TrEMBL record:
Record-annotated DJ-1/PfpI domain positions: 26-223
Claim: Protease is one of the keywords in the record: yes
GO MF annotations, alphabetized: glyoxalase III activity; peptidase activity
Name of this chain's protein: Intracellular protease/amidase
């Protein structure tokens, strides 16, 4: 049995408080189901601890699938999103992998969270797996290793592309261009030829998926690495 730490957002809206956002639920539930089937222990952490809001668009047809519906209808799982741990309450030595989920909210609270950076650095440097899907890769933008280098520098990564932001109609509301920021930090950014299709990039113990459609494949890739 391995131990996996899922990272989720605390942010419930864009800069415009009338524009709600939050966790893209299926990006958590796909991974949770896959890791549970492997017998792994799983826990949730968020930048501030406490409640996790849900992205409303991800809870509507056709984006709300069986995995996310199963979570919504399970009170024992829903309560997990009401009281997540804060980074200071997590011992990274207890985890074999850290997995950053997405939803636009993460752009506001993942990149500059010193607590999340500490957890990521320590799990990575102990030989653990670092994973992210969609906007979750924003949580890797500013993580530095003990030698001062950026974790993503010189490594292949993917995540929600700027073209996908434009096509989703939200580019003008974005805090920054995550794709461009990754490239600026020296990451070797990759993306699928067509937007919104599943696409996963593995660079050693770093596993990233481009968009919500990539969540299942990303989790499967991490599960394969956890088997050793």
């Amino acid at each position: 049995m391995k131990r996996i730490l899922h990272v989720v957002t605390n942010v419930a809206h864009y800069d415009d408080p009338t524009h709600p956002t939050g966790l893209w639920l299926s990006e958590l539930t796909y991974a949770w189901d896959i890791f549970a089937a492997e017998g792994h222990a799983q826990h949730l952490v968020s930048p501030e601890g406490g409640r996790v809001p849900l992205e409303p668009r991800a809870l509507k047809w056709p984006l709300l699938d069986a995995s996310a519906r199963g979570w919504l209808h399970d009170p024992a799982r829903m309560v997990l999103l009401e009281d997540t741990a804060a980074p200071d309450n997590i011992d990274p030595a207890e985890y074999d992998a850290i997995y950053f989920t997405g939803g636009h909210g993460v752009m506001w609270d993942f990149p500059d969270s010193a607590g999340l950076q500490r957890l990521t650095r320590e799990i990575w440097e102990r030989g653990g797996i670092v994973g992210a899907v969609c906007h979750g890769y924003c949580g890797l933008l500013n993580t530095r290793l003990s030698d001062g280098t950026l974790l993503v520098s010189g490594r292949r990564v993917t995540g929600f592309s700027w073209r996908e932001e434009i096509l989703a109609g939200v580019a003008k509301a974005m805090l920054f261009d995550a794709e461009a920021e990754m490239v600026r930090r020296g990451a070797l950014y990759r993306k699928a030829l067509l937007p919104f299709l599943p696409y996963v990039v593995t660079d050693g113990r770093l596993v990233t998926g481009q968009n919500p459609a990539s969540a299942r494949a990303t989790a499967k890739r991490i599960a394969r690495l956890l088997r050793g």
